[in-house]
Hints:
By secondary structure, this protein is of the alpha+beta class. The protein contains 21 helices and 21 strands. Helix 11 crosses helix 12. The N and C termini lie far apart (76 Å).
Amino acid sequence: MTNNLINTGKVSKVEVLKQKSNFLRGPIDVELNDGNPFFSQDGLQILKFHGSYQQKDRDLEKAKAKGEEAQYSMMLRTRSPGGFIPWQLYVALDKLSDRYGNHTLRATTRQGFQLHGILKENLKTVIVDITKNLGSTVGACGDINRNVMAPPAPFKNKPEYVYAREYAVKIADLLAPQAGAYYDIWLDGDVAVTASEAPEVTEARKRQGAGTAKTNISETEPIYGTQYLPRKFKIAIAVAGDNSVDLFTNDLSLVVITNADNELEGFNVYVGGGLGRAHNNDATIVRIADSIGFVPIAQVYDLVKAIVALQRDYGDRHNRRHSRFKYILEEWGVEKFKQVLLDYYPTKLADARELPPFKYQDYLGWHEQGDGKYFVGVSIENGRVLDRKGLHLKTALREISEKFHHDFVLTPNQNLLITEIAADEKEEIQKILDRCGILAPDQIDTLVRYSMACPAFPTCGLAIAESERALPDILARIRKLLVRLGLEDETFVTRITGCPNGCARPYMAELAFVGSAVDEYQIWLGGSFNSTRLAQPYVQRLHINNLEKGLEPLFFYFKKDRVAGESFGDFCDRKGLTDLQQFAETYVSELPKEKSKGKRRDVRHRVTLSTKSFELLKKAVEEQGASMKDIVEASLEKYLA
Length: 641
């Protein structure tokens, strides 16, 4: 069977690289052992498909400018359908982060873990260890189906949640790459270390679609062919009424539909969501998914393959900023899309089943699973699992996983659930959480609880502004401003990203900061708490020093003109951008000026170290298990005292 694509016009360089890579082997199979601490630009494009990005510590760019070598390292991301992390995998990740990484783990917004700071020479060792401990990184990045999300709650007495988890795994397996490059390069051809897929998935992948257009185009890679997809493809499985997966932001979302006997009948189908965009380029868009109907369970694999194949064939392979699936829906419209889909899946979809309103769920705190056991949701602020003064989250999770052998589930909002807890284990686990400084849900500031941030600096090469490191101070300043305005009990969803690519899904938030320049952010307003409505751009550039000045008019107007029970996002949506902007332009603050306490707000200063001093500091971090900041401050205080 040949690799025949409908869209055969001019293609980008990345498309040529994929086609010449021998199904994602070259050039990384050669470059892995070439002695260099980095992969080539061509190699990087293929490396993504294996779950890794090459990064540089951008805090050290000044050192590079002075003639020192750039500090290259790799980020690895797990493929964890539905966020499921076996306890063995968590223990392995924890140890790997200390031995080969930067001593932290990062929970992603798509229910995976990321390891940062891995040297190229250690990359294969780390991947081998991950796979031997029931994990994988294949397909976590690249122009392929990414990690399939599902509601994280491990309910045993709610069949719809069981079905969602089951089909997250099955669809992830259906769309996993088949050519074997991952096993050849990283595992020396050993496929046995990974779990086997359900026979129905294998059969469905091999089955050619019933339409006139082919879903399968290659013997080696049946669905993807030699060029894979034009860009990343994101899928979520949702449960009716539960929007913990942000279903409207995905390329494809399936909502579980059960009958009166709690048997799985099929799925409501949503297509065309996506949030990546670029500043100053109106041709790039953010879009929420459209409902296109209902598919019975017997045909779900065929429909999924058909939708992916349509994107494979019609997606833009020349302009990568225009290549996501959402542009097909935006430019064709739903009706034309459904008509073309019939070429791949020649059965008209039934009308979508009626659903209750979707609500955001974070599942923090203690819950019954429905089988006599419990799970507890733990907040991971900004998704960063680490130990620091007053918080020893990494220690707590390691201790719990090693002692109790309970599996974890990551949530789409960067938190973590500890599952399968027996009644007689609750007290001891809670004591560990308390001892390590993990707050109960009612102890967490709600602004913090409902916030998200991408990593941005110092590791992300696309970052324009700070995100993860800036969010705690931003939230503290917002809370202080709300208190001054008499809105001390108010909360809303706040999200921040260091660039417009939208990894933390800012465009669905009630208030969002999108990096537009160093210390400057585009402000988006009017998303909903339940993540069912897009926000709109309010200000193009707000300097972080003008945070209070920029937000005070909005909060004052909200307090003055809100209707009973109205959220901040709903208020902004009702008023509209023009009204909000006009009010802000004429606003005169009525707040009394704060008295100076003689102390400046905490400001972080940078000091450039010699290579020798920096290496000594790194060695101390590894030996003491403390952060660079803590070691430096303690040493200075001792020396200067």
